[in-house]
Records
---
Amino acid sequence: MLKGVNRQVLEVSEPDSRYFERILFVVKPEFAALSAAKLLKEAQAQVKKGGSAPPKMGKPAPEKRGLYVAIMVLGAALAGTILALVLK
């Protein structure tokens, strides 16, 4: 879904993909004044490059899990200590 009324959209039809029939690029406002040829050239370069991968979500990497566990344990210990001092 595109929000806003004043957006410049560039459509690349028939990219070299068996999965997609077209790709839509939303042009940043500061580059809207560039020529159509320049924008098309940049869009085609992005299509060939494949763009960037979507961000990965989910479990942290194995090397970071230990850090997360350590932080959680230290946080719980700190909270317990504060609670014990307050309840004295």
---
Amino acid sequence: MSKKLSKITFSLDNAPSIRSFASIVGEKEGEGPLAAYFDMTTKDDYFGQDTWEKAESEFLNTAVNTALSKAELAQKDIDMIFAGDLLNQCISSTYGLRDFDIAVVGIFGACSTFAQGLMLSSLFVDNELADNVIAATSSHFSTAERQFRFPLSYGGQRTPTSQWTVTGSGAVVVSKSSEPPFVRGVTIGTIVDLGVNDANNMGAAMAPAAARTIKQYLDDTSTNPNDYDYIITGDLGEVGSELLIELLNREGIDISSVHRDCGKMIFDSDKQDTHAGGSGCGCCASVMCGYFLPKIKSGEIKNVLLAATGALMSTTASQQGESIPSISHLVHISNERGNER
């Protein structure tokens, strides 16, 4: 059963297992530094569909089915799915999963949605409320640009602090199992808003939320950055990553040697012209499922914290001059099931 360490931090004593994981990405992501690690790369960002939105749903559908296949489970074996995305009413998840005869809980944490889904799935399994749960999310460069910024045909200039929304999806199956990776603890994020209102500088908006959540988990578990191989953020990019390190340094916490950011890893910003790096729900999901989780499973990596971040913005609020509230949910993932760190 889960043990409450603070109002928002829980240790998971049964240590649910991430039984399988799958990552599907688009062409640009497949040309980046992590190309060899994804389960599938498509050369067609329409993914055989006639709209980008339908393509994103197909990405998520494919990732879920791939994770099921790798877990050697059928749909009837799954208790529920936690899924969400960036689009209005989470339509990528809704349409991507509508043919599944499985209970679905739609969730939204912007780019933190993968960590949010993994956290909720793990809590359900740890407390014996479910045996097998799927967490999945997706994003698509073209759908996100159309919704949050400008249609691609507009041809607007991208600012140096802007990030490139990842076209991709990631899905995991969380189960009772003796095989790693194991989920050892979670911290539920708190909304942080320091007044940033530039939709092209989400790293600056999200970094304070990541700093707060990481500090919370370290304090609640009496651990320090050196207890972990990596402290991973979802998509702060280059600007947000620098701010995160600076903010935690002010608190006497130095994560500079162990920090990795999925948004910085998935693209070569110089060669691929992605400016400050990657973003989107599919960024953290595909990098975790493609790169980090296999290495944790094999034992090459022993212990990580994933603190995915989300900018809880909308076009309506932005047009009304609102700032960008942000959140970060944290999941502790380990190769070891016991209490040793």
---
Amino acid sequence: MHTQYKISKDNACANGSLLDPQDGQRSVANASRLVIRDKRANQEPHPAVERYSFPARDTETVTLRAGRNGQGTVVFHPIPSNTSCSSVAHVDWLGFTLSLAEERVRSWLFKELVSVFRLPVSEIKKSGWNGYTQCAKLGDFGIVAWGGKAQRGTVHVEINGTGCARIADWAKVQAWGAAQNAWITRIDLAHDDLDGAQCNVQQVLAWHEQRGFNCGGRDAKVKLAGDWHDLTDGRTIYIGTRGNKMLRCYEKGKQLGDSASDWFRVELELRNKNRHLPWDMLTRPGQYLAGAYPCLGFLAVEQVKLRTMQKATAMSLDRMTANASRLSGKAINVLMKVHQGDARKVVQLLRRKGIPKRLIPYQDQLANPRTAGGTNEDA
């Protein structure tokens, strides 16, 4: 029996906002209470949707850590799936903290971020970050923050998805983090299905109906966001709760602007609130993602980060080209007539230094002519 899901017509775009303030606060305890109705409700189901039976299993172990005033704290430890392949997921966000004397941040840590992470400091900001009094940018790929009495001599590093794509040796990063007694505060593990063949909206909803997101006998909360009416701007399914254990399943290609794209992403976000995040998650991302929920053990497509980055770059270039044509196409026609068809002259008049903001995360890929469709020239 297929479960139907219902959402408000006043739903938001797929940018992480909730569709309806009241519906968004409501946890969905079982799939039979959800109904989807939109103008395409009669369309054929995705051909790749498969039915499984998922037995309830533990996805985390629990220990008790001694706390202040004799009170204990429950700590959860993720259980990796040893039967899954490590390469079915990749690290798409990494935040960690370490204890370090403030005077060693510039003299030592900045150099380590280059040699280990390939992320040089590009700018030291005048303001702090999240309680830290000082902050520096790692290009467009992350930040490093330090200083402040309340921070008790710690330094925090946050690396975003495109920054993680620059890291060539995760085993080296793992060994470095363990050697420095650093602790992971946030990690995102992502699986990209570029064709939407195995992972797609219908399949995720089917997994939920079949209790594929059941952990220890309890079904995880489900929330819907995005364009469930026109199906052009992308849809998102949230499993779990942010700040604890959150699985985002969304139409990545549509998020990047291609309304016809089947690119689908499954992304697990874990934070260290009452949870221990081991450093070996960096080299076993697929096993930890597969272990998070029973249904994710079926993920089998090996991840090639370079291919994913190239696809994102190409889609962003296509979006940029379409926007440029819409905004300036007629003006270029006029200029071509004024300058007797001298394209070089027109280009010289219109060119500006730099690259569009949306392409900054992919600037390394723009250096490859194949990524840019074989037309990339020196800019």
---
Amino acid sequence: MGNADRIIRIIIAAAIGLLYWKGIIPGTLGIVLSILAVVFLLTSLISFCPLYTIFGLKTCKIEKE
């Protein structure tokens, strides 16, 4: 996972957390988005997204030797 991808995921997770905390996205939608935010944070911290592996995506630059 590339740095830009990690930063975007962290920003989205923070925004969802803030909106849920402020009560702007309440109820079931808020809970679902909060779970998604936690997944975004976890995948950002470990720099690995299982869905990227399944779909064969790569967002990090490959260093040439």
